[in-house]
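Go through this chain.

——
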Amino acid sequence: MATIHELHTKLVNKEISAVELTNAVISHKAKVEPVVHAYLSDSHELALASAKAVDEAIAKGETISPIAGIPGAIKDNICIKDHPTTCASKMLENFIPPYNASVIEKLNANHYVSLGKLNMDEFAMGGSTENSALAKTANPWNLECVPGGSSGGSAAAVSSGSAIWALGSDTGGSIRQPASFCGVVGMKPTYGNVSRYGLIAFASSLDQIGPVTRDVTDAALVLNAIAGHDSKDSTSIPGKRVDYTKALVNDVKSLKIGVPKEFFGDGLNAEVRKAIDEAIETYKKLGAEIVEVSLTSTKYALSAYYIIALAEASSNLARYDGVSYGLRVSADNLVEMSTKSRTEGFGPEVQRRILLGTYVLSAGYYDAYYLKALKVRRVIKNEFDEAFSKVDLLLAPTAPNTAYKFGEKINDPLAMYLEDICTVPANLAGIPGISIPAGMSSNNLPIGLQLLGPAMGEETLLRAAFTFEQARPDCQLVAPTGEVSL
């Protein structure tokens, strides 16, 4: 399985050129895309031009970034100048941003190569990528199953080998859950560690851009490239960032890892539970101290999350009114035009969330729902802070189940929302989390292990994830289509 760090070594040693590597991934992509459908648009010409520039830099003896010349791809809610950014919605199907997101500017400085934009649930609203209005992405491990969501295209592309790495966004688990379903590594950084400028908003106080990669080392390399303060984002955390690759130390002997009992309830799949229990035993053997902790208020996390997220979505999506940009449907008057544009432009899940969000913000219900949810959010944050005063990390399942089949949950929104039960607390608290492969189910579907850390605790997260990865090579998963011939 080719990784960023392995390919970087080959590039600098001139064992392979960036153009050869990019062509190899494009060729592999042509084979797997007809069945996986991870992409919404391609940028092959630009990718090859970027790869050629990297080869020229190497020929001149210049030092290149660890991600330079390594083909990746970007979730289609992150703006790239002069390239379509659709949010997998008919509302923005023809939108071409006039500017780059801050993470794209940072990647440009690292001479990144992007093969295109990746499919997602429309406006990042969903957990299976079935809500995309533009494509149907399949799980590379089982084409009858969903890849997870909303960053399903990102996880499927990396898992299938049509990208070596990808960027996703995580509002309530939208990086970690698809990473779990597709057997790859997915990381949600601390809220504010990575700029949100140029990320088309779903819920502004919850959204966070992060990496989807083939192993933990690659996650650290991509995080190095995109993290840092940004004056364009008022929620960006100031201060100099560290080199996350220095955290990749194979040692957890000094770590105290908490296991929150609330994450191991009745709804947890038996095979997922077994894999997580085995992961706990692995950490014990490696010398980590395992402590049971309690986060009693997390049982309210899902309810609070969906009130806050939907309220913010209602506010953020009010701008798509058929006037300034996006889809415009002709009508006899302004009100009719706006109504028709939003009705045709938004899919059923987005409409459902806008309606619910508008309801909880309406007069008479604001205090009863939205304000109360904000108070619950603070209680949850305080409980995490209390837990991290006693332990270094928390360990839990990423998702209560493995990937499910298309159509299994899409018509039952509540069942779909319950799939987020293990991931949403981290977004409410603004803390970092990572999902790493922890084994396979009996029907050959990946199982994800989730580690959570205190705010700006990415170094400890990466260290613990890296150590597990080194101790459990049996969990290094490669999907049937995932090996790229170089």
Notes: The first helix runs from residue 4 to 12. DSSP finds 15 helices and eleven strands in the chain. The mean pLDDT is 96.
